[in-house]
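Hi V.,

You were right to ask for the full record rather than a summary. Here it is.
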Amino acid sequence: MKAYQIVSDGGVDALSLTELDAPKPGPREVLVRVRASSINYRDLSTIENPVPRGVPFPRIPNSDGAGEVVEVGSEVTRFKSGERVCGSFFQDWIDGELTELDTQKMLGGTAEGMLAEYRVLPEHGLVRTPTYLSDIEAATLPCAALTAWNSMVESGGVTAGSTVLLLGTGGVSVIAQQLCNLLGARTVVTSSSDEKLARIRKLGAWETINYRTTPDWDRMVIDITEGRGVDHTVEVGGAGTLQKSMNATRFSGSLGIIGILTGGQVDPIAILRRSLKLRGIYVGSRRMFENMNAALEVHQLRPVVDGTYAFEDARQAYHDMRAANHFGKLVITV
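Predicted structure:
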């Protein structure tokens, strides 16, 4: 089988397209024919900086993948051949709180990833694909979509009538907008691109702000919400945006801390004065994934895929991720 491997710290262009022996499933394991693998900023960072992350060489990248079961090992009860599935980011985080032990098997990091023609995974590390989605669409769900769901639904308590702040128009923020539509929540979305803001408005955004032309965008959020602030912020920027995000969030509101895209420092006084609830969001458990998929099935939500790439062109997908011109997700077909 063909697979990409991280073999050095040479970055995207040093990825090796390798021929490997096809794997066989053992007891309670499932052989999956991978059909699509989406990429996340985390995957790009892992390829560009594998040594600080403790990634061993060689390592197959990418946490996200979707395909079909082609063979099951002995004692498998959850799946049968022919079923369509997605891999769980945390292979062993089934439910409850995230533990240190759960982080020892993260696809594309502490465990082999999904950018390969075939992968053997434990049956407990898979979920069924929503029936109406293509494999390309389903491949966007395991990381970005589940992260947004966890931030807003599992941790943030977002419900109908809530107001949510979304930063940018990357994979997490775009699917978060779609999930807010599903939940009946309204959104305020920031971006440096008027074109992308126009696209997110067509997708259902309530209000939009260009943060380049409006550097005090946190004050505008307060004005838009008539002095109150948003109920929840999906914070993907990191320290460079967190201060303004806290300013824009209502008293006793919540922030899901997801990304580290920008540098900077944070003054914690706003957390105390506004009684804010900050929670680190590290994707989600299998139970959360299954709950999200059930909601998607009911509402027939289709993730936004901005670009698809042939398997042989995978390196270009990462370069395009780095360029940050995309709106939604980038997916590699396998």
